[in-house]
Amino acid sequence: MPKSVLFDKEDTIKKVTELFWRKGYNGTSMQDLVDATGLNRSSIYNTYGDKFNLFNEALNYYHKSQHDMLDELQQKAKSPKEMIHLLFNGIWSDLNSENNKGCFLSNCTTELANSDERVHDFLAANHLKMVQMFTDLIKQSQLEGEISQDKNPEVLANYLFSSLHGLRVTSMVATDRKTIKAIADQVLLAL
Fold first, then answer.
1. What is the pLDDT, as a whole number, of residue 177?
2. Which terminus of the chain has a lower count of CB atoms within 10 Å, N or C?
3. What is the Cα–Cα distance from 55 to 52, expressed in whole angstroms?
4. Which residues does the chain have with pLDDT short of 50?
């Protein structure tokens, strides 16, 4: 008879996500995972297979939380252009905190995108989704007269994605909150 799982998987994934987010994949040992979750090694291996599978669960958990946040912003926004503004303003206000870890996906990009094809593919798919979201918002804003029709939606969408990614990385080392906001405001002038 197979053993039943006697722990809260969602709570475990939250803890693991925080750990990988803070220490990175390569900086996280199996002992770190044991310590963070309170599970023994055999429970981790029996449930998740290996460290990478657990990391993949953390990536998916974080990815879902980010898309949930985007859905919330879309509900608040009165227009597509305002949605973009809310996203950038939310980033600078969230990221320059005392224990700033940056963005988990941005951190993964700088650590693993060139060394692990599985992570690269995950991040590339996220890139395409985000660029498509920005493209759709820009096109809708153009139809509503909020953004000039002479701007190329795809180029502008890629610029916004790159800027958002860069802003998340920069905010990890910038010490002045005003600097982060000024960068976000400068990016938004492109709209």
1. 78
2. N
3. 5
4. 1-2
Token representation of residue 158? 């890629």
CA distance 44 to 7: 11
Cα-based torsion angle of the residue sequence 126, 127, 130, 134 in order, rounded to the nearest 10 degrees = -170
According to DSSP, residue 2 is labeled P
- pTM recorded for the entire structure: 0.88
Residue 96 burial (CB count, 10 A): 19
Q: Which two tokens stand for residue 111?
A: 């650590």
3-state secondary structure labels for all residues of 138-174 = HHHHHHCCCCCCCCCHHHHHHHHHHHHHHHHHHCCCC
Cα distance between residue 110 and residue 62, in whole Å = 16
Q: How far apart are CA 191 and CA 185, in angstroms?
A: 10
Picking from 70, 71, 69, 81, the residue whose alpha carbon sits closest to that of residue 140 is 81
Separation CA 78–CA 83 (nearest Å): 8
- CB-CB neighbours of 181 under 10 Å: 16
Residue 63 has which token pair?
Answer: 């990815």
Q: Are 156 and 191 in contact (CB under 8 A)?
A: yes
> What is the rounded distance in angstroms from the CA atom of residue 191 to the CA atom of residue 151?
8
